[in-house]
Amino acid sequence: xxxxxxxxxxxxxxxxxxxxxxxxxxxxxxxxxxxxxxxxxxxxxxxxxxxxxxxxxxxxxxxxxxxxxxxxxxxxxxxxxxxxxxxxxxxxxxxxxxxxxxxxxxxxxxxxxxxxxxxxxxxxxxxxxxxxxxxxxxxxxxxxxxxxxxxxxxxxxxxxxxxxxxxxxxx
Amino acid sequence: xxxxxxxxxxxxxxxxxxxxxxxxxxxxxxxxxxxxxxxxxxxxxxxxxxxxxxxxxxxxxxxxxxxxxxxxxxxxxxxxxxxxxxxxxxxxxxxxxxxxxxxxxxxxxxxxxxxxxxxxxxxxxxxxxxxxxxxxxxxxxxxxxxxxxxxxxxxxxxxxxxxxxxxxxxxxxxxxxxxxxxxxxxxxxxxxxxxxxxxxxxxxxxxxxxxxxxxxxxxxxxxxxxxxxxxxxxxxxxxxxxxxxxxxxxxxxxxxxxxxxxxxxxxxxxxxxxxxxxxxxxxxxxxxxxxxxxxxxxxxxx
Lengths: 171, 302
Prior knowledge:
heterodimer, A: mainly alpha, 6 helices, 85% helix, B: alpha/beta, Beta-Lactamase, Rossmann fold, 2 domains, six-stranded antiparallel β-sheet, 17 strands
């Protein structure tokens, strides 16, 4: 009986700690995706300005340097760009960016609106769109970093402590 | 033949064209904002029921540029874009100038999609005049607009480049200056229309500059270009002749009398630069040769 209680206690502690750690990782993941987005936009800007490559080629070349889930999301958008006409690309961008669960809604909004506006005007306007997006995302990265620093340890600690509490109270 | 055009059109327009089942006869598709689509066929004009919106015109450009209008900005500023298959989309709208140069065409309101057609063998009847004893005669093809001079020069270039076995003529290196992309219709670096295996193409450049560049870099046996007539073209042509290159050109006109009104062309004719002058008929059927002048023979119809 005691043996079973110990196993259940360890399981509860592991689960709650895992939840705490996952929430802390999500904070880190948000910062990483936003940083990758800036890298991506800068590389796309280079592809546009110096190579005059079209968007599918620019996206495909630029996403190779990414390290986060953003790489696969951009890859899916590139595939859809090759398969479908203009009318379906906007939906593809929205659906694929929404799969990035670590991002907040306003993070996703800026990424979606930037990707939807790219390609629709001349080079100077493209540069402006990218520069504006980078400025906004840099502020979001700063906010994400502050939240990560504040909350990451709290989530991990709360995870362990709540597991211990559940064990003590109920077991 | 117009599959590549249907791919770039909005679905509601392409479906309507497919429904009519006349695509093999279409020579032009005209899209004008807030007007109905007009199809120009070989013997009639068809006005479709569907209305063109400004969004539809934007959609065509986005499809053509693969969602990257900036990437075709240079083509837009030139007033036309070539798509896969060699079809040419003419663009009109509001021109934006900066420092005297065209920076953009905004509020694009009309597109003219010209279906590319190549007629193999249309030069067969004139080639024995252009080539004699294995040598190429400098040739000027004169015709009014829409009478087949571009189609004819394309086939001449193709056959000279490939060689003509039944004339025992070996292929020659041809440099083609395709200023407006109408002869070879280069798309993503590849000629969409067959201009021969020994043809080098310089596109999107003025004829004068293109000729000078080709002579310096590509060692051509023949230089060909469409619609000469400007003073700078004439200077470049004289340089080409001095380099020992044969030339084949076209120009607008309907007779010798009409072309000698251009004093620069008259100067070339006076210098006897062209051995052959081919006049195309302005009748209903394009590509009909009205007369061929041999300038080596005095008073000369061949």
